[in-house]
Amino acid sequence: MTTPLLEVRNLRTHFFTKAGVVKAVDGVDFQISPGETLGIVGESGSGKSITAMSILGLIPSPPGKIVDGEILFKGENLLHKKEKEMRKIRGKEIAMVFQDPMTSLNPVFTVEKQMVETIMTHESLTKKQARARAVELLQLVGIPDPSQRLRTYPHEFSGGMRQRVMIAMAISCNPSLLIADEPTTALDVTIQAQILELFKQMQKELNMATIMITHDLGVVAEVCDEVMVMYAGKPAEFTNAKEIFTNGKHPYTTGLLHSIPKITPEKQKLKAIAGQPPDLRHLPQGCSFAPRCSKAMERCLTVDPEMRQVGENHQVRCLLYEDEASKKAVTT
Amino acid sequence: MKTLLEVHDLKMHFPLKSEKWFSKEKPVLKAVDGVSFSVRKGETLGLVGESGCGKSTTGRAILKLLESTAGQIIFKGEDITHYKGEKLRKLRRQMQLIFQDPYASLNPRKTIASIITEPMKIFGIPKEERRKKLDQLLDVVGLNASHKQRYPHEFSGGQRQRIGIARSLALEPELVICDEPVSALDVSIQAQVINLMEDLQQEFDLTYIFIAHDLSVVHHISDRVAVMYLGELVEIGEANEVYQQPQHPYTQALLSAVPEATPDREKERILLKGDLPSPQNPPAGCKFHTRCPLAEEICRVKKPELKRVSEDGQMAACHFAKEVVAAAPV
């Protein structure tokens, strides 16, 4: 077995606010190998972005604090690194692409200035070499006439082009891990298709591991190898991207899949998940999905289930799959 | 089925600032440029397209929130294009709008009760009746009657959208224009709101114009679908027909671009080159020719007209779509 590039163990990130403790991430485990793409899926407030920010050491503190867990990157615990050391890792070893390309680029500097700065911070190149590298990168992400476009400002690019610039900057120092937080959510469908295609091509060419954070299961089907579904700060299910669609086990996963309208000639009424996502300050006792779950049992309201192995590379946090006995009880 | 609304050659141009001083030429942005369609009573017409294609502007022009540059809007057989003042006010009672952003479209300083009853107050419905109607509305959209005196910030996104829907139904409109009503919501909540809108349509015999960019949502809710590109209609027809046999290359590309939540995708993806051209300076001829995989010389020169491409009345605006002559009415 290959050693994982990144291993997150029992990560807990809590926010201590006046209104109470918000357990934004509460016990997340996963690992990712080089060249692999992991999708983290969930609705707003499920903790998917906070998981990414925790890995990068970008949790604002106070009020946030990583209260427990380990983040092992190439065998070293990132939580023990000093800010100065983290700065060397961020951008070079682990890069990030954000949702909104307009707010993550600086509007008052040219693209050239921003790209050259990133490259020179992390690599010992001259300005000229860094510029040549920037041109090369823009070409790689499919921006026509790159040496001209380098001299322009972010506002002169369209949304899709800006996202390409962001991706070019992210991969400029050959990171071994790329974290993409909703990279296509702000884009139109035809542009989204272009960017997803670019991600697939990057993975093939650069062999980097990618964490793709998204709320769109369609995006997962397109680009991910493995997927973790999160609900209220905890993973609900972890398996490979094929299995989740054909053999999704957690009632939340199947509920999500049923909530998406499918383009088929015969129309059926959508099976929506009832209720609202829980308030993270006052999580229900027991399974946090139980109040909305159609298959909830008496025990779900009191017992918080553990992650269980239910198949090869398939884990579910649900009492339905706890043991054979409860399985039978469901079928009868 | 009776036709409720007809739009003929609707144009909505916005004047822009001239780039040169003292120039006589006044540049205009043609947000909507010659759109015609009709909506039948009780149906849902989906309006899709990418950002900047003019779908929202079309909706606003129909509601007469914008004064259209040219064209005709006929509602229930009456030409309402130039309605003003009291006549327009009365008309508005029959047409309502549901907004995209449930956070921005509710006044944060008003209670739910006063938000929902305000339209009725404006139209002089007596207090007793307003109160009765309020309880009824809260009930149909699935909100608790005890929430009446709360403020919008106390509700989640999905609940706020329900409040917005209740408000738009307060005056018992016939036509509801829904401008991206579910795109700001999470997937599980989105399904709840879509189901609610379908139930309400049945119950109150509503006609929807459903504007959205999410193609699977539009397919799910619509009877007919119109596809827009740069201010023009490129294809319109029965939802299943448009989705199963799209005739316009833009519709084909758009549909193939939708990421589907299935592990084995069969569809071949058509990747469009480049970005959407600026509506300020759209390409000549067919506006889609700069990104079209089929484009030939004729597309650069001649603008294609919407023509009938199926027996059932599907229409597409493309030089290469096969025209089907309508069968003579029996």
UniProtKB/TrEMBL annotation, chain B:
Coiled coil: none
Signal peptide start-end: none
Domain ABC transporter: 16-255
SMART domains named in the record: AAA (SM00382)
A GO molecular-function annotation: ATP binding
InterPro entries: AAA+_ATPase (IPR003593), ABC_transp_ATP-bind (IPR050319), ABC_transporter-like_ATP-bd (IPR003439), ABC_transporter-like_CS (IPR017871), Oligopep_ABC_C (IPR013563), P-loop_NTPase (IPR027417)
Keyword Nucleotide-binding: yes
Pfam family, one: oligo_HPY
Keyword field: ATP-binding, Nucleotide-binding, Transport
Tagged with keyword Cytoplasm: no
Family (UniProt): Belongs to the ABC transporter superfamily.
Alphabetical list of PANTHER family matching this protein: D,D-DIPEPTIDE TRANSPORT ATP-BINDING PROTEIN DDPF-RELATED, TRANSPORT ATP-BINDING PROTEIN
UniProt-listed NCBIfam families: oligo_HPY, PRK11308.1
Protein name: Dipeptide ABC transporter ATP-binding protein
Species: Tigheibacillus jepli
